[in-house]
Amino acid sequence: MSEITPQIVADHGLSEDEYQRLLHALGREPNLVELGIFSVMWSEHCSYKSSRIHLKKLPTQAPWVICGPGENAGVIDIGDGDAAIFKMESHNHPSYIEPYQGAATGVGGILRDVFTMGARPVANLNALRFGDPEHPKMRHLISGVVAGIGGYGNCVGVPTVGGEVNFDPAYNGNILVNAMTVGVAKTDKIFYSAAAGVGNPVVYVGSKTGRDGIHGATMASADFGEDSEEKRPTVQVGDPFTEKLLIEACLELMASDAIVAIQDMGAAGLTSSSVEMASKGGVGIKLIMDQVPCREEGMTPYEMMLSESQERMLMVLKPGREAEAEAIFRKWELDFAVIGEVTDTGRMELMWKGEKVADIPLGPLADEAPLYDRPHMSREEYKAWAQVKPLGEVPESTDIAADLLKLMGSPHLASRRWIYEQYDQQVGGDTVQRPGGDAAVMRVHGTDKALAMATDCTPRYCYADPYDGGKQAVAEVYRNLCAVGATPLAITNCLNFGNPQRPEIMAQIVGCLEGMADACRALDFPIVSGNVSLYNESKATGGGSAILPTPAIGGVGLLKDWRKSATIGFKAEGEHIWLLGGRKDRGHLGQSLWLREVRGLDSGEPPVVDLERERAAAELVHWAIRNDLVTAVHDVSDGGFLVTIAEMALAGNIGAVVDPDWSLGSPVTAAMFGEEQSRFVITVADGNDHRVMEEAERRGIEFVWLGICGGDNVAIGDYNEPQFGAVSLTDLRAAHEGFFPRLMGGEHPVA
């Protein structure tokens, strides 16, 4: 074994203090295998050493929560003996280095997190952040990431039904690829990862181990330098066809009672899976490295333990069930090997060629991993550091219609059709609502129930005020689910930030988490799973520095009847358009998309989320959908209610005359493009207005007339003379649908 030098320690990402801690835990110098195991288990990616202390602030319980954070994925009860199992994870650094495989293996990894708990995956979603569209590398990154997501999800047979895509120069050198999977299982057939039963066999199944992905977790816990291309070997290579076989084999074995515990081999591969299983079960584990299936010659225990080769699982079986399990995996043409056993030592022991090559107490690797309370700025100190300019007096728009057209064709709001049409959205036959609305809706197979799901976050809000931005990210997803008629049940998150050793970045983390926690409590919307991705920074040329704080939220809700889901498109001419919810001080332009895209400014405070109003408005929308009083629903977010109306008009191919009651206040520009929260635009068939209005008054919710559906354009002003202009649906559609095909050099999609 090589001598452990300070340089080797540094190359493994351990600080001097952490290495001293390692020496104390072992009581001796480690060998290279042991050093490698400590390095990945103590990496930020695996140990959450900078965030664990703050993650404890998040609410994680509710009567319908079966399993919260700490397992492979979160589990919620959706009635009738059914459970939804879901999680979101990041694959940011690998996707920047090698976009196709980075994104593809991100999808593969999150699928395994879900089916390892006994669920059949039913839907994939994603949350993507790219840099300036004009950046010379961006087309390559977008193309590779989208192809990787589609290539893996389409081949494995799980529909990709929702997501979000944003652009900002802050992501030029460090894009974000967050993948989410939702699965369905029976509540009495959920599988966990805690190993048990001294002497029980430890079994390896799936693909063979190769040298791809070695030190992937360590790489994901450091920022980028000029050498990012040299890190390409740390990116895993995926095979979706093998993953499909693995899903079917695992679910077949799960139908028996042979499995004691199961864990996928994700970040840090065989190391993390074996350590987590043993530590959660309070037992030890002994592995015979000679028996690990390898696809390359001469692999060492160090390489086997740190490889992140894809499509692999680790199981503990009941004694005597090995032959039964092996027959199933061989039938599906997958590797199967008994590679060890559960022990009572509380240690990880590795044997190779008859010698013990590692002997480590499990406590220091897992529960006793380093935990830091990093210094962070106060909210006031952060605001001074961020230097967000006051909004000041904003001149009125000279052409509201032209501004609308510009917004609808901007990178932030343009149609994502070019992206989602590369994904299979309907495989399995249970997709009720496809991409393009507020939330995807998937029928629970063989029932009338449906799951609604959405991802969202507004990073510019989070940068300007992390607390309010974190609160808004949760509220926005809550609103998305409510807009389709679902009852929001729980969320997963993917917390993407820069270097936590910088007090301003730590202030973003702390602020966003506190805002999220308050929103989750107020909305009864617990967090049941998640992922933390730090060190999203780049020193590479053109990379800028830290990303915008991006706490991406993925939410899941339940509809008792999938036929009752609401959609965003206008349904008929003559229907009335109303604005439901919001605050009395409407017209908030601070940090708005209009301000950024039309005025070129990033100024002002983000809109404040009134959580009491948020919940009340959502409950009113539920009531109206349940009682068949609304024909279309769309939440108001980026671009304000005029953009919301334009999106509804395009979805229904019916125009609108927008003629709000100006007597209620704001200047025209702020009224049209302001981004106050807790609002929905709804359409109501003639005769139902008074019922909704009376209920809104009873609940204390604002209900404001906006206009009427009809025509072939969006006209702004009174009915006889749209004094603020009009834009045709044809021009709106051309602007809205044209951005991605122009950027990527493809043909304009068929509407």
CATH architecture of one domain: Alpha-Beta Complex
User: What's the total number of strands?
Assistant: 26
Query: What is the structural class?
Result: alpha+beta
Biggest sheet strand line-up: 8-10-7-11-9-12-13
Helix content: 25-40%
Q: Would you give the CATH topology of one domain?
A: Phosphoribosyl-aminoimidazole Synthetase, Chain A, domain 2
The CATH homologous superfamily name of one domain equals PurM-like C-terminal domain
Radius of gyration: 26 Å
Number of contiguous helices: 26
Major pleated sheet:
7 strands, mixed
Shape: globular
Low-confidence stretches: 217-222, 227-232, 747-751
CATH class of one domain: Alpha Beta
Query: Strand share of the residues?
Result: 15-25%
Average residue pLDDT: 92
Distance between the termini: 63 Å
Fold and architecture overview:
The protein has 751 residues and is α+β, with helices and mostly antiparallel strands. It has a domain of 186 residues: PurM-like C-terminal domain (Phosphoribosyl-aminoimidazole Synthetase, Chain A, domain 2, Alpha-Beta Complex), CATH 3.90.650.10. The chain is built from 26 helices and 26 strands. It has a seven-stranded mixed β-sheet. Strand 4, helix 8 and strand 5 form a beta-alpha-beta unit. Helix 7 packs parallel to helix 8, helix 10 runs antiparallel to helix 13 and helix 19 runs parallel beside helix 22. It is globular and about 90 Å long.
